[in-house]
Predict the structure.
Amino acid sequence: MSDYLEIIRQRGSGALDKKMGIEITEASPNRLVGTMPVEGNTQPIGLLHGGANVVLAESLG
C-alpha cells in the first residue's frame, strides 16, 4: 500500500462517502482511484443515479 493511500485511510472518510460506499483503492501524486457500489445508489428504475456519480467525482477530486 502506498504512503498516500495510508494517509487517506488514516484521515478517514466523510459521512457521505461512507453512506455511498465509496472506497479509495489507489493513491499517488498523479492518480486517485476509488470505487462505489451501484446497489443502493440507484434511481427508482435501477440505473446508477447521476448525483451518485457527482458524489464519487467530488470525493475523488
Notes: The two ends are 20 Å apart (CA to CA). The chain has one domain: 3-60. The mean pLDDT is 93. The chain has three helices and two strands.
